[in-house]
Write a structure and sequence with these properties.
758 residues, 18% strand, globular, disordered N terminus
Length: 758
């Protein structure tokens, strides 16, 4: 039975891989054991008693003599090196081998001189440069001292990418000449340059002033004394910031950290780090989505945050880590990987990397953590959604359909409250508000989502049917593939079988006629996002790819074993409506529960929106940033051989509790497990409300792309339909109604992490 199971698993994996190739992606990675860090690969360090010298630890790097040396790529993975360089550490495990006897070669050339010896750890660390594109062989031996040797294959990719996200999107609007540096330093490049996508790396020094309010100023050239208006950090250091700006992966990146060039004249490096840096890195992610394609963007997630810098953190981000520039987690993950690689090569490995970002920044953190584990070791998703492609798009397109229906003149009468309840939102105005955001599926001329593309190149169904389509699906074509009939990206959008308002008709809030009329006339979207009478039908290959590759966030990848603090500034009650509604936090929690059977690595805190959605001025958020630092630090210090999730839970700070802040002039924190129970204090202050598909019978996980269906029966309803109404209902749903008790079509677990798209 054991061998049969293994054979079946192998056959299934091969079959799924073949299907995956047809869908446009390649499965090249394997799940790592609990506690492993995928961003760092080793040669050697076996402890399983296997004496086989030809040890291929993870399928990506070849090496020998695992009992002699351990080779680590500190700056990333050996198979995903960008730009031809990597920070490498060689640890000598044989006691009789002296460090001075170690020889290190790259492709047959001796590079030992690039390494610095550390006798305390019996290791040599160095920046390996000059790799050729493709495979490179790093070899270590002991200058003829017996058979002590090891080697590792390093695979180098172009600094402009891609590495794993698939072919570059074209056209592409570069923006280095529009990217403004802080402290009045002006644009990154002149308006007219030869290559506006790629610029040489530059370093600037700026400082924070002690004025009220404080500002950033350029560090005086050739300064030999501190400016009189120089502020001091919370850690008591001169508030001087080193700012690095450059380009990788067709993105503009920035890195900041505290560094005092007067007290420490030498530039920081991987070997001599800034004395004012606390050795932690916060990676920031920006929000948005509409128009986030075909462009480089002229902003990052922010690297000059006062609270983070004054507490000693280094910050990093890139323009492709702003979803308003790039509404696709794949280039976002790839760009983050390459920026973090650059950070480590320049400044050394951070003690850990934690994430922060709101809205689109939450998409990025959830999906990067789950699908490319190890890049982030703890996250704070703010105003969160599980992802853009489904949790967000399904609820905003449903809202668009509902709002369009309620504005028709040929419908039955509805009260304002009935309309609101069908949407599930706290205020009805959320429906027309988010319907504007639903234009991210709309490629037609006049759409607000295509400003980066020259008019002559844009898609027009009448005059340019093969033009550039600006939609979230076409931006993700490397995952979904193309429909051979149209040449457009396959689209995993569906509302077949959904009974809008089902819970309301069964509770007597709306009538049978209202229910039938709504579902009869709500319609769906054609391929150009025009509302039509027919329901929208998902492409099942796209749905399969979404589940297998994590475009619909599963929660069972890297998210299963890292600390997550979900921070929300409550926006459900905004009179004009808003897309950042609270139920999405519970969607992510439910997915974690489904994938892992537990959610004790997920902490929710919520307060009112007095500080806005994107501001880090909230004392509650600031406390969470520091608390997450303590949490991850404790986890990494825990060397017990136990599952990683147990380390996460056991090391959760005792003072970190779920709860909410009260309102008023002096908010007080209520420690309370966050649920959707309306009797709880936090829910009364910040109700979670609902969404159209939950009102139609789906659960809060919002993880079904296309529902399984069943024939409708009279017993399914708490109201009596007339024969005419029943006939109309059957005509509306000729293939049946959603059966939410079953998984959706193609619904399945995450196939793997670290998937490469080709």
């Amino acid at each position: 039975m054991t061998y049969l199971s293994k054979w079946l698993r192998g056959f299934a994996c091969a079959l799924l891989s073949a299907i995956a190739v047809l869908a446009g992606f390649t499965l090249v990675a394997t799940a790592l054991p609990s506690g492993a860090v995928p961003g760092n690969a080793l040669a050697g360090d076996r402890d399983d008693g296997d004496d086989d010298d030809d040890d291929d630890r993870d399928g990506r790097g070849r090496h020998h003599g695992s009992r002699d040396f351990r080779i680590e790529v500190l700056s990333g993975r050996p198979d995903m090196i960008a730009g031809g360089d990597a920070l490498v550490r060689v640890t000598v495990k044989k006691k009789h081998v002296r460090l001075r006897d170690v020889r290190i070669e790259l492709n047959g050339t001796n590079i030992t001189g690039a390494f610095v010896a550390n006798n305390a750890t019996r290791s040599l660390t160095g920046l390996v440069t000059g790799m050729r594109l493709g495979r490179n062989e790093l070899e270590v031996d002991a200058k003829g001292k017996g058979h002590a040797n090891a080697n590792l294959t390093l695979v180098s990719h172009p600094i402009q990418g891609p590495v794993f996200s698939g072919p570059h999107e074209q056209p592409y609007a570069c923006a280095t000449h529009q990217f403004n540096l802080p402290a009045g330093l002006g644009p990154l490049t002149p308006a007219q340059i030869t290559d506006p996508c790629h610029v040489p790396t530059r370093v600037d020094y700026i400082y924070r002033t002690n004025a009220t309010p404080s500002t950033l100023a350029a560090w005086p050239a050739g300064a030999t004394a501190y400016p009189s208006n120089l502020a001091t950090t919370a850690t008591g250091k001169p508030y001087i910031i080193r700012l690095e700006t450059g380009t990788v992966n067709r993105a503009i990146y920035q890195i900041t950290m505290l560094h005092d060039p007067l007290a420490q004249p030498a530039a920081p490096s991987w070997n001599v780090q800034s004395a004012n840096w606390n050795k932690r890195l916060i990676y920031t992610f920006g929000g948005g989505c509409i128009g986030g394609w075909y462009r480089q963007g002229a902003s990052t997630g922010g690297v000059t945050d006062d609270f983070m810098l004054t507490n000693g953190y280094a910050l990093a981000s890139s323009s492709l880590n702003v979803f308003g520039n790039n509404c696709n987690d794949l280039p976002a993950a790839e760009s983050m990987m390459m920026v973090k690689e650059r950070f480590i090569e320049a400044y050394g490995p951070p003690a850990h990397t934690q994430g922060w970002g709101c809205s689109g920044g939450s998409y990025a953190q959830h999906q990067i953590s789950d699908n490319y584990p190890g890049l982030l070791e703890g996250i704070i998703p703010g105003c969160s959604f599980p992802e853009v492609g489904f949790a967000t798009i399904n609820f905003i397109t449903d809202a668009w359909l509902l709002d369009t229906y309620f504005n028709r003149t040929d419908i039955v009468a509805w009260t304002p409250e009935q309309k609101r309840l069908v949407t599930g939102f706290m205020v009805y105005n959320t429906a027309p508000n988010v319907a504007i955001g639903a234009r991210r599926i709309d490629p037609k001329p006049g759409s607000t989502s295509c400003n980066a593309v020259p008019v002559a190149q844009r898609y027009d169904p009448a005059t340019n049917p093969t033009g550039v389509r600006c939609t979230v699906y076409d931006h993700t074509v490397n995952v979904y593939g193309r429909d051979p009939a149209t040449g457009f990206a396959r689209r995993p959008l569906d509302n077949v079988g959904i009974q809008y308002g089902l819970k309301l008709v069964n509770s007597g809030v709306i009538s049978a006629e209202q229910f039938v009329d709504l579902n009869e006339k709500i319609g769906g979207f054609d391929r150009d996002a025009t509302i039509v009478p027919q329901r929208t039908v998902a492409d099942l290959m796209a749905a399969r790819a979404a589940y297998q590759t994590g475009r619909l966030t599963n929660g069972g990848g890297g998210l299963a074993s890292i600390p997550i603090i979900d921070y929300r500034a409550y926006n459900d009650a905004v009179p004009g409506g808003d897309i950042h509604v609270r139920y999405h936090s519970f969607s992510m929690r439910e997915r974690l529960a489904k994938a892992n059977g537990r959610t004790d690595n997920h902490v929710m805190v919520v307060e009112d929106n007095r500080f806005g959605l994107y501001s880090n001025a909230s004392p509650l958020l600031q406390r969470m940033i520091l608390t997450l630092d303590r949490w991850v630090t404790a986890i990494k210090a825990d060397k017990r051989r136990i599952p990683q999730i147990e380390k996460v839970v056991h090391n959760k700070p005792a003072d970190l509790q779920e709860g909410c802040n009260t309102g008023g002039a002096s908010p007080a924190f209520i420690a309370q497990t966050q649920t959707r129970d309306p009797s709880t204090s936090c829910h009364q202050l910040y109700p979670t409300n609902s969404f159209p598909r939950e009102v139609a019978g789906a659960d809060v996980a919002a993880d079904i792309i296309k529902c399984q269906r069943k024939s409708p029966g009279h017993s399914d309803y708490a109201v009596a339909f007339t024969p005419q109404q029943w006939a109309r209902l059957q005509a509306i749903f000729p293939t049946g109604v959603c059966d939410w008790s079953h998984p959706g079509y193609e619904q399945q677990d995450l196939q793997d992490t670290w998937i490469v798209f080709d």
